[in-house]
Amino acid sequence: MLKFFLFLFLFCDLYSQIIKTPPYEKYVDSTKITFFWKTMSISDSRVKIGKTPNFELGEFIDTTKTKDHEITITGLEPAKIYYVQIASYGIIKDSVRFVSSTSSDSRSSGVINVYFNKSIDTSVSIWQKAMGNVDLKSKLIERINQARYSIDVCIYNFSGTTASQIADALVEAKKRGVKVRFITERENYNPARAGYSKLINAGIPILVDNTDGYMHNKFVVIDYRDSNSWNNVWVITGSWNFTDEGTNRDFQNVIEIQDRAIAGAFTREFEEMWGSSGDFPDSLNSKFGVNKTDNTPHLFNIKGKNVEVYFSPSDRVASKIVNVINKADYSIFFALLTFTNQTLSNAIYTRYNSGVRNIKGILDNNTDQGSQYSFLSGFSEVLLDTDRTALLHHKYCLIDPTHIYSEPILVTGSYNWSNSAETRNDENVIIIYDTLIVNLYLQEFVARYKQNGGSGVITFVQEVGSEVLSFEVSQNYPNPFNSETSIEYALPFDGFVSLKVFDVLGREVLSAVNSYQTAGRYRLNLKFNGVNLSSGVYFYRLELEGSGRRLSNTKKMIIIK
After folding, report:
1. For 40-64, how does the pLDDT look when each residue is reduced to its tens digit (9 = 90+)?
2. CATH 3.40.50.970: does it fit domain 112-302?
3. Closest CA to 451 of 396, 402, 398, 386
């Protein structure tokens, strides 16, 4: 019997020695992709690749036995989607299939524009001022008017004067020979509405979803279907619905990207729902919601920016957002219409317990069933939107936005942080690793934070050295100052750092740093634009706790209004 169980254990252990870490693109450019994966047991490395599922470009084999596998495929075409099979042949054989994409070459500019339809706060701008109070409808119509070959529209809601005017632009595009395809949510589809009726009368095909979930995507792809078009290919996505309320009343963000490779992923998702790659839908082959498969590339290199794209419910989007949250070292800021996904709130709580204490959120409400508002409020600052005449319709999250020399990350798109978005609805998420893009969203976040009663100061901390130092905090400069000053400090060991400002009576007036930091030298830029402090003497105190020690230092500053 013992031998039997030993055999069973070994058999199960060997059977488990298949691919341990799912393969991913370690490096991507316009002509090559490096794939990386891990296995439980040593084995060789094999990659089959092709433009079709037949892997017609062949199999690439590295016979070196290893647990860490890496193969680079060269000689590929720019902005091309490839079918890939990763395999490891060792004690047993195992393989995984997926799709990947090379990046665009210089024929695509990689320009990324961000638009907000409400006010922004440029006091936290580090380079470029965000574009606020933008007419989103006019921006979209401008892109439609520039289209030369094709337009794919995938939109949850389409109504009112906004939809009517966008429909006019789409009809004019069709008249000049542009191929237009349109997907929308079944429950919102009404042929009598002006927007829809104009499309129907012009012969523009419209497809509605066929599942019990919502077709909640909001994206437009311009000119991808022209294989010779590179500098005119755009993807437009974000939180915005093409309605009067969504355009004029609610708080929205839109991001547009000029890049052929990423447009390929959105087009592939569109055509899975469309049921064909042709001008007209094939309802027998169209897939929505739980019927979809994970068949799009996800990792992109857009002019040096790492970008990820995922679609629900097929791509397990929540797990991808958790991966991003887990990368937070200093701060997590989010602005969301709804937050009912406990997996995501638990991920934020885990980072809090790991020392990420600067967590701020803004939610439209706390009344949705399963709302995580109470749970999040127990350890972070979560505000509710006070403007009850409008919806806070954003779906974005910022990772380390005030630590610009770490790795700030943006999560945005149409994906509500809800259970339905994860399991039933058609949604899209885009993740961008870029300091300047994150800062544009930070300018919007700060405007909403202040508008809804946030009293904390948004500060930037820059690591300026990593050498071992003694504990010290410099005199702020300039001093006296009016609205902005800088403080440098040094940490001799890793620990929890607090830097607070007090008035002459010892009352705390703001908390500037409240996070775990590694040993090194830091520079803190303090902006007091949104803080109502009178002229006078104040004190700032730096505290460091870690390695069984607690250190502190206090200095005086003077504000002159």
Report:
1. 888 899 999 999 999 999 999 999 9
2. no
3. 386
